[in-house]
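QA checklist item 7 of 12: single-chain prediction sanity check.
[x] sequence parsed
[x] length recorded as 209
[x] structure emitted
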Amino acid sequence: MKKLIVLLVAAYFAWDFYLKPADVVKLEPGVEAYAVPKLFPITYSDAFTYKDHEFVPKADFDMMGKVLSQEPYYFDRAADVSPVDFAMGWQVMSDQAIVDQFTFRQNMRWFSWHSERLPINRLEAKWHMANIHIIPSTDEIAELLKTVRTGDIIQISGRLVDVKGKKDGWMWATSTSFMDQGDNADEILWLENLEIIKTQEEPVEGLKK
């Protein structure tokens, strides 16, 4: 019986990850997020504890951007504190006409993108996107996260943090620059404020992958 329950749970999450239709917002063409994200390194700040993890603030963070893709996580180590990643785009990568010419994928906390025929310079695209690991600071924000749809224009702010598990010593380090690459190149955001700036009354059904 236990094996059957495990199989049913696994089947549900496989459906949720790969097959379940997801809301995809399609806005009119045009840049929606003009400003560069604000990121101010913190020279020193006291660590704080949440869900048996220690958080060390590294930078104040504020951005408006387009949700290019989003992926929930349930089973990896980071899911204890971070239930979802948002791939965000700003300036040229907040223009629906440009975004429609890309495909995006998130898996294993990694973000990748592809375009058959790049509408803009590759570096211009690269430096106007970021994969952000979201840690909701309150239950209310955790619930609000569930209302965000791919394609929305959102405002998010809080602090970028390094994370350490107090029981097992697990470490997760944030980036504090949008110009780095490779391991630890993503931002880990202690999310304090979330606002959906622009969305669509009727979502367009699409696939998560």
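[x] summary fact logged: The chain has one domain: 21-207.
[ ] second reviewer sign-off
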